[in-house]
Specification:
This protein has 90 residues and is of the alpha+beta class. The chain has one domain. The chain is built from 4 helices and 4 strands; from the N terminus they run βββααβαα. The strands form 2 sheets. A two-stranded antiparallel ribbon has the order 1-4. Strands 2-3 form a two-stranded antiparallel ribbon. β2 and β3 form a beta hairpin. The longest helix has 13 residues. The chain starts with a strand and ends with a helix.
């Protein structure tokens, strides 16, 4: 199965386009996954460990869809945070 390389090791930027404190999008997403409670937690946690390393990760289409669905469905994430992640998951 072909894999897609995604890089979430970039700074999380606010509405003004300036980096916000707190690290990269990948680390913030990894922490959000760790704090969530979903039925897909084993697979999502494996993805979270990779994202937290602040390196590009390669995901197959199933894992990419799982991550995208998590982001879209998570009620605790702000719209800005979701937007910044989803623009990288295109």
């Amino acid at each position: 199965m072909a894999k897609t390389k995604i890089d979430l090791s970039v700074d999380f930027k606010g509405l003004d386009g300036k980096p916000l404190e707190g690290g990269s999008i990948g680390k913030a997403l990894a922490e959000r996954i760790a704090q969530s409670n979903t039925k897909d937690s084993p697979k999502l946690m494996l993805i979270a460990f990779d994202l937290y390393s602040d390196k590009p990760v390669e995901l197959d289409s199933v894992d990419l869809a799982l991550l995208r669905k998590f982001v879209e469905d998570d009620a605790a994430m702000t719209n800005l945070f979701k937007y910044r992640i989803l623009e990288k998951l295109k």
